[in-house]
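Journal club prep, shared notes

We agreed each person brings one worked example of a sequence with its structure written out as tokens. Mine is Arabidopsis retrotransposon Orf1 C-terminal domain-containing protein. I'm keeping it raw so we can talk through how to read the token line rather than staring at a rendered picture. Sequence first:
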Amino acid sequence: MSSSDEMEIAGDDVGQPHVDDLDVDHFDELMDHPWLAFPQGTSARRRRDRLLKKEMGNQKAIDYDLLAELGQQERMTAIIGEDTPWSRLFEMTYAPQYRLITVEFLSTFRYRPQAPDFQPQPGQAQPAEVSFRLCGAVYHLSLAEFGSVLGLYTEEETHMPIYTTAIHTADDAVVSAWWPRIGDDAFVRSARVTRIRDPLIRYLHRCIASSVTGRGMSQEWCTSQDLFFLYCILSGRPCNLARCLAEYFSTYYHRQERGLIFGGVYVTRIARFNGLIDMEPAGMEAFHPVRLDRRTVLGMRIAQTFPRGKTTLINNFKCMNFNHGYEEDMPMCLAPPRDGFGMAAFKNFAVGK
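Then the structure, token by token:
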């Protein structure tokens, strides 16, 4: 891993000249910050101008208190594991985002993957594949180092099968053929999330759609990329999250000009890891995460609230009367899978039986 104080932003694909740089003098006070002072006519400047037109998206985080209320906390933990790359990825979503360093990072991020047949010589250092600037410092990292700096993998794990055998993509035919194990109807490039039978997997999809495939719109659709991640999580197939995020960041500037910026929590993690910012950096506006809470699951129609004046039995609740109280005090229950796809069946397919 290496860093330097300066970055070439006038040559290579980091700074190809553009004559149509956007005029953003009027719409963002951050453009005058030293960390965003990229030379006119460079790719970094062009990306910065495009990103400064976007608002920060609300990062979504798992609400384990709600899942405990629904009797699903242990099940979710069994799905994503404990101290695994996936659990670490979702754990990062509790951190705040900072627009300044997120724009700087995305404006300068480059990913140049090694050739598939590349074989490093024994003792040879991994060549840099990832580069970016953060808080004014430039970093050049191998993909494995990037995964470690992100906090997805320990240095030891990057030499273990959890990383060395991990996949970053799969044939559409493979994941489409796997879709019937969790969803109804055919999967043709995408499918409505409501076709996923198990409500907890629908909740998990929402976590994916607002993190590693972060997008502000169309979260009611399960895309091929979303399905690939569900396939990896539920089948136990190692997924190279370092590469997936590298590809996500490197293509971010292609996204809709008026879209939202996601992924700032991972930038916060890198900045904290390198000691570049404090836990609460002065002068930076923090965008805090939003829990996938009661309102979310009711809106997704994957849970139900018992109305006032009803007497009911739910999980380990004793028979209680709810004639009084507010809606948020009412107990909730996860809506049952539409085809009886219960816990036993889930365990069987999750471990490949």
